[in-house]
Amino acid sequence: MAIAVIDSNFEQIVLKSDKPVVVDFWAEWCGPCRAISPIIEELATEMAGKAVITKCDVDACSEIPMKYGIRNIPTILFFKGGELKGKIVGATSKANIIAKIEELA
Description:
This protein has about 100 residues and is an alpha/beta fold. It has a single domain (about 5-105), classed as 3-Layer(aba) Sandwich (Glutaredoxin), CATH 3.40.30.
């Protein structure tokens, strides 16, 4: 299951991770977000030990989406070593997300 990140735990889970981290910015009311949610959950299981898969509800968090300029959802950010390394805006395929993760490995 994807890890829920919020303003207070983002640094510990995302920025201090020794593995690549995927952050899915989403909201309950967002149709495209709900469409890719099963993909995110599958990746959380499939990539266990290789990458950290997280979700950030933009309605529950304000600082993190603002800090990273999240204006459209879904937006998926990719981090490695505490640094932002990539971004996908809008609904996308599982293959595209996996390809981005593999770029970070």
